[in-house]
Write a structure and sequence with these properties.
It contains 7 helices and no strands. Helix 5 packs antiparallel against helix 6 and helix 6 packs antiparallel against helix 7. The relative contact order is 0.17.
Length: about 130
């Protein structure tokens, strides 16, 4: 299994990066993104608009970094570590503070969990092959 993960990490990173980049939507339409992901919206809160747009932009940057790392094997350890930690933080925050949103955010949590497991598998397998 580790050999499969190592052999396909470029495609795993591309898919994970492309899915992560879909959060650019939050930078453009924060209310709609909140509604889509969590099933709620923040009414007339300028600060919330700024924070959600920034959140969407940062997540998009993570996706772009994953895509970059898919083509640049020398950066994969750093890219997978940073992106994996970001995904773990998001999952932890939703699981600890936002369980009421799991019916909507559960898909994102599941995709992130699979990505993190694959990232860990790659990092372990890559370390063993050195």
């Amino acid at each position: 299994m580790l050999n499969w993960i190592i052999g396909n990490m470029k495609w795993i990173m591309l898919l994970s990066g492309a899915l992560t980049c879909t959060m650019f939507y939050a930078a453009i339409a924060p209310q709609a993104a909140l509604q889509s992901l969590f099933g709620v919206s923040l009414e007339s809160e300028i600060l919330a608009e700024i924070i959600v747009r920034n959140w969407g932009a940062l997540i998009t940057i993570m996706g772009a970094i994953l895509i970059y790392g898919a083509f640049n094997a020398s950066s994969r350890t750093l890219v997978l570590t940073v992106s994996g930690l970001s995904k773990l933080i998001f999952m932890g925050l939703v699981l600890v503070y936002g369980q009421q949103y799991l019916n909507k955010a559960g898909i994102a949590i599941a995709i992130d969990a699979v990505s993190v497991l694959l990232f860990i598998g790659y990092l372990i397998g890559d370390r063993q092959s050195c």
